[in-house]
Amino acid sequence: MLSKVQRSTLAQLIVEKIDKRRGDSLRLAGVYGSTRRGDAESWNAIELLLVVRQRRTIKVPSFLYHNVPVVITRIDEQELLAQLEGPGRRWSYWMGVLDELLPLAGDKRLRDKWSARGRLVDEGRFNDLLTDILPELVYEAYGGVLESKDETDCGQFSYCAHRMLEELREVLCLLNRSWTRKPGLAGIREAGNFAMTPRDYDDLVVELWCGDDPRRGAATAQKLYRNYQALLRSAGLTPVNYSAMTELEDRL
């Protein structure tokens, strides 16, 4: 395994080699994630970002180095800007990446320029995006939590509970026009610092994430779901729940 210094050095060397060989196509390259933050565990991946003029111009696969994954993410500059300025569904992900990115090659000023463009998107466009995608998030996973409450094997319950919480975080990021920096429960709890969150958010998400009793977990999920629905109502974003095909005439 690699030390923190070795991780940072390796990231620098990899980016330097890519820049030397393919610099004409490279807009910006850097390291982000746990290696950038300095809190990487021995098993954490080294995450590198390459922003290119056109995705097809640079093809660098991810690989293992001393059993440590080196994950290289490529994105076309125009694709990135579409996510930041649309906004796209992954707006919060890319804003989080840029926020912690350490530029190592290319035009290092671009990180702040792109981030600034993402911050300029107005509330109305975020609400339009949420109106489109809210039915895809939280509801299915919540139904899975309730369905698994009588099962003795908590595997399905845990999967659905974790998915419900990850999707809830995605909604809260877009609703608050912000982002979280860490994965898993740490990032989900970080969303509790936003201005708009469901009531009793932190207590409920910790109980649901860590729980191993499906029946008790389902009761916790119901509380969180009710509070989530109240939050959407207060924001004027509750999805329409149709009950007859005739109601869909104007929708389809």
Features:
252 residues, alpha+beta, single chain, five-stranded mixed beta sheet, 5 strands, globular
Counting DSSP H or I runs of 4 or more residues, the number of helices is 11
What is the subunit arrangement here? Answer: single chain
Structural class label = alpha+beta
For the sheet with most strands, the description reads:
5 strands, mixed
Output mean pLDDT: 95
Distance between the termini: 54 Å
Order of strands in the sheet with the most strands?
A: 3-4-2-1-5
The percentage of residues in β strands lies in 5-15%
Helix content: 40-55%
Q: What low-confidence regions span 5 or more consecutive residues with pLDDT below 50? A: none
How many β-strand stretches?
Answer: 5
Question: Could you characterize what this model shows?
Answer:
- The protein has helices at residues 4-22, 34-37, 77-85, 91-100, 110-119, 123-133, 139-147, 155-176, 184-190, 201-210, 214-235; strands at 26-32, 46-52, 63-65, 68-76, 102-106.
- The protein is α+β, with helices and mostly antiparallel strands and 252 residues long.
- The chain has a five-stranded mixed β-sheet with strand order 3-4-2-1-5, with helices on both faces.
- Helix 4 (91-100) runs antiparallel to helix 5 and helix 7 (139-147) runs antiparallel to helix 8 (155-176).
- The longest helix has 22 residues, at 155-176.
Topology diagram in text:
Layout: H1 4-22, E1 26-32, H2 34-37, E2 46-52, E3 63-65, E4 68-76, H3 77-85, H4 91-100, E5 102-106, H5 110-119, H6 123-133, H7 139-147, H8 155-176, H9 184-190, H10 201-210, H11 214-235
Parallel strand pairs: 2-4
Antiparallel strand pairs: 1-2, 1-5, 3-4
